[in-house]
Design brief:
It is a single chain. The chain has one domain: NAD(P)-binding Rossmann-like Domain (Rossmann fold, 3-Layer(aba) Sandwich), CATH 3.40.50.720. The protein is about 45% helix and about 15% strand. The protein has 8 helices and 7 strands. It has a 7-stranded parallel beta sheet, with helices on both faces. α1 crosses α7 (about 220-230), α3 (about 65-80) packs parallel to α4 (about 105-130) and α4 (about 105-130) packs parallel to α5 (about 150-170). The longest helix is centred in the middle third of the chain and has 28 residues, at about 105-130. The termini are far apart.
Length: about 270
């Protein structure tokens, strides 16, 4: 019970990575506040947790709205009396280059992924200090380390999150508040279109990107988030923990050669 009695807030907790973290934290004794714009799914996740005997609450939260972020933190403290862990997981983004992307979409992406993490800390840290310390975890991405085409908003925001984490680790370390990031690779979950998994060619092509020859699950990220939230990580702060099945450790020439060999074996799909 590594989070026994601790109060945790998880943004984007209704599905996917956030839902996986909520379940893992509840299994370890955490009192969980699920925050999301998806009310039906968020309440369903909360009901799943309470059915397992956990203490859990849902609050509708749009992380692009500063007042709702403060209300989320206040709600957790009012209901449970303290705050120990904040997971900044919710995001919004839209593809495109700097030429293609509208300013409105750029601003919304920055608000959801970067400003929301800043505001979450702004309101959470004073409560964590009163509780004797705490842990803030921001879900970044391998896209915060390496860039992909036509993803200017997502790549920029996820990269900014990593340096924001480092800055806040420096600022809040003296308060015993640790701040870390997790950088997932491909995580397949129930909120996505996973029809491609029925196609052996698409499955094999994606497996080529990972030395472990598999993509990740919410449980993989939840286990990392549990470690960073627990006292086992009491000397870990300012770190960006990559959980990507080895995707970002490989040389591109080696990877491209494996892909070429795979495609040669499936010439019929390329005709």
């Amino acid at each position: 019970m590594r989070l026994d009695g601790k109060v945790v807030v998880i943004t984007g907790g209704a599905q996917g990575i956030g839902r996986g973290i909520a379940h893992r934290y509840a299994e370890e004794g955490g009192r969980v506040v699920v925050a999301d714009v998806k009310e039906e799914r968020g309440q369903a996740t909360t009901d799943e947790l309470t059915a397992k005997g956990a203490q859990a609450l849902f609050i509708h939260t749009d992380v692009t709205d500063a007042t709702q972020i403060q209300a989320m933190i206040d709600f957790a403290v009012e209901r449970y009396g303290r705050l120990d862990v904040l997971v900044n997981n919710a995001y919004w983004s839209k593809g495109g280059t700097a030429v293609e992307l509208e300013l409105e979409d750029w601003n919304k992406a920055m608000a959801a992924m970067v400003t929301a993490s800043y505001l979450g800390a702004k309101h959470a840290v004073p409560h964590m200090e009163r509780a004797g310390g705490g842990s803030i975890i921001s879900i970044s991405s391998v896209h915060g380390i390496l860039a992909a085409a036509r993803s200017v908003a997502y790549e920029t925001a996820k990269g900014a999150l990593i340096l924001l984490v480092k800055q806040m680790a420096v600022d809040f370390g003296p308060l015993n508040v640790r701040v870390n990031a997790i950088c997932p690779g491909l995580i397949v979950h129930e909120g996505q279109n996973t029809a491609w998994q029925q196609d052996p060619f698409q499955v094999g092509r994606r497996q080529m990107d990972y030395p472990l020859r598999r993509w990740g699950t919410p449980q993989d990220i939840a286990n990392a988030a549990l470690y960073l939230a627990s006292d086992e990580a009491s000397f870990v702060t300012g770190h960006a923990l990559v959980v990507d099945g080895g995707m970002t450790v490989q040389l591109q020439d080696s990877h491209s050669q494996r892909v070429v060999e795979f495609l040669r074996q499936h010439r019929d799909r390329l005709a």
